[in-house]
Amino acid sequence: MKYLILGAGPSGLAFANTLLDLGCDDFLVLEAAHEAGGLCRSETVDGSPLDIGGGHFLDVRNPEVCEFLFRFIPKKEWNHFHRDSRISIHNTLIDHPFEANIWQLDMDSQVEYLLSIAQAGCNIGEEKPTEFVKWIYWKLGTKIAEDYMLPYNQKMFGENLNQLGTYWLEKLPNVSFKDTLRSCLMHQFFGKQPGHAEFYYPKEYGYGELWLRMATRLGDRIIYQKKVDEIDFKKRIVTTIHKEDFHADVIVSTIPWSSIKKLHNMPQELQERIQELKHSSVEVKYSPETLPSDAHWIYYPNPDLSYHRILLRHNFCPNSKGIWMETNTDRVDTADNSSHFHHTNPYAYPLNTLNKPEIMQKLLIWTKTHQVYGLGRWGEHEHFNSDVSVERAMKMAQHFEG
Description:
The protein is α/β, with parallel strands linked by helices. It is 30% helix and 23% strand. The strands form five sheets. A seven-stranded mixed beta sheet has the order 8-7-17-18-19-16-20. Strands 10-2-1-14-21 form a five-stranded parallel beta sheet.
């Protein structure tokens, strides 16, 4: 075939469907699982949808992407939400982002945080450090760093935070002492809204329904339970674990590079660099309890709790109950014999390690010379949300066939 697409998550499905829009049907999608959706798949648990990859929503900020996806689930079948996310801190819940809402804490805590922000390195002209932990102190001040950002990131990404670079945090704004003081005095939000400030979620389905419908349109151009085992870059042949070979003019990979067992005709040095890429694994667990909160999700930096985030399903998924808990698999309680539903995602978040940019630049430049392209969260090893993955897939398909 002309295009062989590895993986039927948001990136692979958007690429394939855009090819159809452009009049190209000479492609095939290989998917390792029994259905499409990747990290955005949903299952019915306790009578209503649960997204097994954790919290995934459709951001409203890209109208082109939204209009593309509304072809599969019409806009009238989505609810539109203004994000309500909270942070559990000092035995209370405050709104996210942290620095804009410390006015919701007691007066003594407000004073401590304000003093800490005023003394943050970025506010007193100190040179910007390169190590992750020092950078967080410099950017946010001691109190926010120690009470929230550092423990939360350790729960998300592991204890060794200095393996992470700071390049991916450059978009994080400096914590303004003036804005924080103004918010404390006026008891209202000042500053930049976080991502997913507004989002869509299906009225009657889990988020996974969107991707199932996109896969349905592809018909027999998508094949399930075909896990990729090998890629021969010289011959552009992909081999599955069942020793089936597929040949294409162009290969578009949306799957983790480290999950591919053999990379034939790739320089050994580059193969070794791929193994340096890091990622985290996450367990999503369901609990039937209903918390008395209007929040869509809540962050928990407390290291004594295994999970780092919960999603209150009943606040965005109609006619449902219960919560989903997200926990790094390194922190999962193996002695927990609860019968409640849980699902482990071996590949959840690409980690932005110090050496990742160099590795991915070399890798993607080299593979491109062999007509093999990385795309999406795992093909590019970037923490893209689903809307960004779809946008990048649409643009790549338009580049090839537009």
